[in-house]
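Hey,
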Amino acid sequence: MENTIYIAYYFTVKPLQPATEILIAELGYAGFESFVETQDGVTAYIQKDEWFDTILDDIHILKSDEFEINFTSEEIEQTNWNAEWEKNFNPIVVDEAVTVRAPFHEKPTTAYDLIIEPKMSFGTGHHETTHMMIQHILKNDFEDKSVLDMGCGTGVLAILAEKRGAKKLDAIDIDNWCYINSLENVERNACKNISVYEGDVALLEDKNYDVIIANINRNILLADIPQYAKCLNANGMLFLSGFYKEDIPLIEQKCNESMLKLDEILERGQWVSLKFIN
């Protein structure tokens, strides 16, 4: 199989926050699929086939007078990604209970050790949304639950859910690279109960789960929440992230239409993660 060609944008950002968070969100909406936060800003990647000359025209923060943002760009092959993330990927610890690390990092002493090789996939735990989803999984009962990780990225959330006792898990992502990467990480963590699929919400027909995790962007969530609700068993839990605090009313309204009630809100920076129950 030919290596996919990516365009890499190297952004320097002053001051770093909240500009870096906003920049990542806007680039995500524009079609960029992977990000590495650096000491000076962020590196963003988009497949060359998805790129076009004016792709940055709608990135509003680049026009802001509040921040100084500069960038360079270049073409890279997918296989060059390993060197990039190894330079920037440090282990993270969530609530002194979960460590997310690469295979080349030392084994930690936390209760849960997640070994993730992210490559081009989203979900190392560094981003606020993944961090909050990990917190939700730690705070709630996953013992013997059936779980869906929708938009699984690296598979990190499904992997933690199995380690927290889930008995049957589906991890789904529309991106082929994420699908392959999740398979690799599931095997790397010796998980036995996770099935990985490539596709979208259409795969959920006739499926049922006790818990659904979806860390995707707002517009996809708004479109897919009714299907999530149909798949959720009685006394089920739905965890959502990938959007800002100001998006809560839209998300809550869509969930309420499907008889789902907001149960908890986590906030981290400008990002939020919500727990709904039926």
